[in-house]
Amino acid sequence: MDSTKVQSWAKVNAAVITSIVVLWITIAVTAWISINKNQGYLVYALDDAYIHMSIAKNLALNGVWGINGGMFSSASSSILWTLLVSLIFYCFGTNELVPLVLNIIMATAVLLVVHYILKKYFINGWREGVILLSIVFLTPLPANVFNGMEHLLQILITTSAVYLAAVLLEDPSFRFSQKTALIMLILSSLVTMIRYEGLFVILIICILFLLRHRFLYAVFLGTMGLLPIVIFGLISLRMGWYFLPNSLMIKGSWPEFASFQEALLALGSRIGLLLTSAPHLVFLAALVFAVFHYKYTNDRTFWNRSTIMATIFVGSTILHLSFAGVGWFYRYEAYLVAIGILTLGLAARFDIPGSFEKISLLRAKPTALLMILCLVTLLLRGVSAVSSIPLATANIFQQQYQMGLFLQKYYTGAKVAANDIGIISLNGNIHLLDLVGLADMETAKARRADIYNSEFIYRLAQSRDIEIAMVFDSWFESSGGIPKQWYMAGKWRIPNNIICGDDTVTFYSVRPSGREKLVKSLRDFAKQMPPEVIQSGEYTIGNDTIGQ
Predict the structure, then answer these.
(1) Structure pTM?
(2) What is the C-alpha separation between 37 and 183, in angstroms, rounded?
(3) Same domain membership, residue 486 and residue 354
(4) Same-domain check for residues 444 and 317
(5) Stretch 453-470: mean pLDDT, rounded?
(6) Does residue 201 sit in the same domain as residue 310?
(7) Do the beta carbons of residue 295 and residue 352 sit within 8 Å?
(8) In what order do the strands lie in the sheet with 431-434?
(9) Do 413 and 502 reside in the same domain of the chain?
């Protein structure tokens, strides 16, 4: 390829090249700051990332989907991500760098897919650059890279599925046997395999195919979307677990009301909550709806790609906000934010009749207000996301990572109870009792049956022959607190907590005979603890080397 062709190619693809370079530089700088902050360790911003790796490691080494050795546990709501990480572990060995490398690849692929879609709409130059950089920082991609989880793969697969569905729905000469239709069927399964919220997207797409009078294809599409969930659910039932993963059964939003009045009150409460917890997504969905509703009222054409994508986005957002979670370090709704930005960016084509410049001032006021609210909330979220990554990784390093190192050094092979199970199950080499219930069915059933209390915890720990417990005391206050029979040996408290479930983890000796060992082990380990962590309890008494 001669220099002229290279220059021409670079000019045509300048926006996507720039956005990828900016993404990589942001990741590199953030990684450098985080690693230096964490004594040379690469640490993810969420303990949940290590839950996936723990299951993947167990699957690769023992052929079992679970946290503990040869025991099944339905603790992951991402079938595809866990399988992918497990496959890499099986081929190349367990390595904590795997999620980081995968997520850098996925984040780059997201920008390439969006670039491809924008080219189809002849959006290039500065407009394309603005859209791509918005997806980088407002989704935000860097934060999800350091989450170490499946959300970037979710964005990649779901964005591809939404666009492909729009292509098929727009096509008046649609044929079931065409290549694109077959690819869409595969994507339907992948959308739900990556995260169960993908069902929202597939449901809206199926409804649109039904409205388009493509009934058979809608049935096949819905079946393919449900297939991975049904297969895993049947396996889970056979192993004595719930049909859905415990994370969904315990954390999911399941509205319950006995009357229409209660339903209205619940709806009002939910709307108020969303305006405080996810205003960026509410305003983004409202803005997309307003822009494309204006387009429809002017040209009365619904079955075009941009309007179809907008419909899928708004419908999926409504379902997600109604039944799923938001937040928790910018991840749960990231796929919707990315699709929303892309969909809104299609308006940069200026194919809306009359274009934005010609909309009357009176009619533009509500849209302008929505645009300002949307931009402000997304920008605040984006700035917060990038700036908080090093602190979030430091929180995990100072708390969960140290817990894993502590267990690895003093309690290898021991039976341990805990409420945050990621790093300690991956690196601790222990037999774990999950006191939250994500990876323990007895605990999950007790919580759902409302019989979970300190007496239940005590009896359960006794029956499992648990040696020590590492817990957040605040998590058990509503259940009557930690069993009084347990002996408290010490506490670690981290500063400036923004990501851990509590800033203080407490260590208990469950067996009376284990008290001395726990105190001695904590005292010895204190020498290598990060200096920022405030230590207290019996093991610190009379030890001048421990900071208070």
Answers:
(1) 0.92
(2) 44
(3) no
(4) no
(5) 96
(6) yes
(7) yes
(8) 431-434, 415-418, 468-471, 504-509, 487-493, 534-536
(9) yes
Distance of alpha carbon 517 from alpha carbon 465, whole angstroms: 16
Cα–Cα distance for residue pair 410/408, rounded to 1 Å: 6
Q: Which residues pair with 505 in a beta bridge?
A: 492
Minimum mean pLDDT range among 33-47, 245-259, 420-434, 470-484: 245-259
Residues 330 and 395 in one domain: no
Cis peptide before 99 (omega within 30 of 0): no
Read off the pLDDT band of 222 (50, 70, 90): very high
Can you give 200-267 as a three-state secondary structure string?
Answer: HHHHHHHHHHHHCCCHHHHHHHHHHHHHHHHHHHHHHHHCCCCCCCHHHHHHCCCCCCCCHHHHHHHH
| Interior angle at CA 274, CA 272 and CA 276, nearest 5 | 75
212 and 120 fall within a common domain: yes
**Per-residue pLDDT, 268:** 59
What burial class does residue 149 get, using C-beta atoms within 10 Å of its C-beta: 0-12 exposed, 13-18 middle, 19+ buried? buried
Look at 50-54, 104-108, 361-365, 495-499 and tell me which has the smallest mean pLDDT: 361-365
If asked whether residues 20 and 155 sit together in one domain, one would say: yes
pLDDT digits (tens, 9 = 90+) for 94-112: 999 999 999 999 999 999 9
Q: What is the DSSP string of 355-396?
A: TGGGS-HHHHHHHHHHHHHHHHHHHHHHHHHHHHHHHHHHHH
Question: CB-based contacts of 111: which residues, under 8 Å, 6+ apart?
Answer: 16, 19, 20, 23, 132, 135, 136
Residue 352 has what DSSP assignment? S
On whether both 411 and 346 belong to a single domain, the answer is no
pLDDT value of residue 362 = 42
Q: Is the pLDDT of residue 294 over 90?
A: no
* Residues near 470 by beta carbon (within 8 Å), at least 6 away in sequence: 403, 407, 416, 417, 418, 424, 505, 506, 507, 508
